[in-house]
Amino acid sequence: MAALMLLPRGGPALGTLLRPLCSWADGLLHNMAQPGTWDRFYTQQDTAGTPSHFNWFFNYMAISGLLLPTLRGCGPPEPNPSPTRVLDVGCGTSDLGLGLYRDSPHPVHISCVDVSPVAIRSLHRLLQEVPPPRHPLSQLHLHVADATDLEGGGFGDGTFHLVLDKGTCDSLLRCPQGPGQAGRLVAECLRVLRPGGSLLQFSDEDPDARVPFLEQAGGPGVTVQEVGHIDGMCYYVYTLGRP
Ligand SMILES: C[S@@+](CC[C@H](N)C(=O)[O-])C[C@H]1O[C@@H](n2cnc3c(N)ncnc32)[C@H](O)[C@@H]1O
Prior knowledge:
Elements: H1 14-18, H2 25-30, H3 35-45, H4 60-74, E1 84-89, H5 96-103, E2 108-114, H6 117-127, E3 139-144, E4 160-166, H7 168-173, H8 179-191, E5 193-203, H9 207-218, E6 223-230, E7 233-241
Parallel strand pairs: 1-2, 1-4, 2-3, 4-5
Antiparallel strand pairs: 5-7, 6-7
Helix pairs in contact: 3-6, 4-5, 8-9
The structure holds S-adenosylmethionine.
S-adenosylmethionine binds near residues 114, 116, 146 and 148.
């Protein structure tokens, strides 16, 4: 995977994003493991009445050059027409899942999951504006579910070829009560992966801290790649495979 230099329009760093948005940004930063926090956050985003995407770190366009080939590489081999199954955990109102659904030249079934019904409602409205997918058999499904208990949400073992996490594990790890939940999140993401599938975590956390955490939560074989820099902050993609 080639390292990308993220363009500023990909989105500024978390603190920069939050500062002008809401007076209770500090509260958000310390309560990211609480579902009510996210409902309030996405309600605040939606007050203008017109739904718009909110992306942590960077948007779909900034990483589509990395994601689309990854998607192709982990799906069923040609000429198998069955879809590549993708799960986006803690999707929020990010354009990640919608972008992959729209652009993939091969059939994809994308499930976007978030604990916040407010986020899922906004994403559902945004979905109405997405042009038809490039492949007619592609599908996109939105679910309100707890990603630390995907089994409770009806997601069985070995369902997905690719699981994406952009900022969700980060947000759990940043709260005092979060690390246990972050470990459960990783375990659940790996459980729903097919053998040979991959979990990709996009994060601003340094490899010195994230790799040991992931190895403890998910096992050995974690790889890390720089994705790019925004405002001097380095962003990474961590990959875990299911043997
Ligand atoms: C830092 S935001 C990232 C949002 C999105 N992935 C993006 O890139 O813009 C974290 C997201 O995780 C969601 N979240 C937090 N805890 C969760 C959980 N236990 N299960 C599912 N989603 C969760 C929040 O509602 C929020 O949308």
